[in-house]
Amino acid sequence: MLLDCAGKRLDLSQPVVMGVLNVTPDSFSDGGRYLELDAAVRWAASMVEEGAGIIDIGGESTRPGAPPVSAQEELDRMLPVVERLARELPIPVSVDTSKPEVMREAARAGAGFINDVRALQMPGAVDAAAASRLPVCLMHIRGEPATMQQEPRYGDVVSEVHAFLTERVQVCEAAGIPHDRILVDPGFGFGKTLNHNLRLLRHLDRFTALAAGVLVGISRKSMIGLLLNAPVDERLSGSLAAAVIALWQGAKIIRTHDVRETVQALCVCAAARAAG
Predict the structure, then answer these.
(1) Average pLDDT score over residue span 144-158
(2) Is 221 considered catalytic here?
(3) Which of 16, 18, 168, 249 is least crowded, fewest Cβ atoms below 10 Å from its Cβ?
(4) pLDDT of 28
């Protein structure tokens, strides 16, 4: 299946690696590294060389406890990078945002994909996404980043996340976003305990029929740190294991900070799956 991302194609018949590019001072893993435009462009180009199929640009940290930023501040951080990368890279550029005004300006600047941790729930976001005619990813979150990890509770996390994403897909379709332009993300680490995250990973195949594909972001997250008792910069092996499990369970796009290693791990996994 091919996604049209503002004229650049994303082939979901093969595993797609989404490279993370945070232009923020406070993201949990790479905050502050790519605030300067040329540094951000160089890092994006290196991820393309390593095999990334799409680059995801974030201008507002959504780590647990992160404070919100204004739309203007997010645009000031993100827009110059979107404009450069949309012009210079051969692959699509995604914007990791929940704000409708940021979606509109990013689309005008050449972004080809909208990745929203709030599943287009902010006022005006569904209409802005529909007007952009871009593919969208709807992620589940319980609460807001500032408070989401304060004792999150579910009766059945898999069923509740599934029901939420089903409802959001329906809202988007009613607003004119075609089913084949919608992806879903169960939101690992966004208002979930370690056990919640593990259950979602174990039952990820439950989500594959909801939309055109499942996008998963587990790279370097606290669930990996808890399992391995490892700091952020020592979570590569656990992140790769989670990525392989996600692909085996039917995920189409894996969002990661470690592109080359993830591409290689998914290549082996995909070959084994294709062998039947």
Answers:
(1) 82
(2) yes
(3) 249
(4) 47
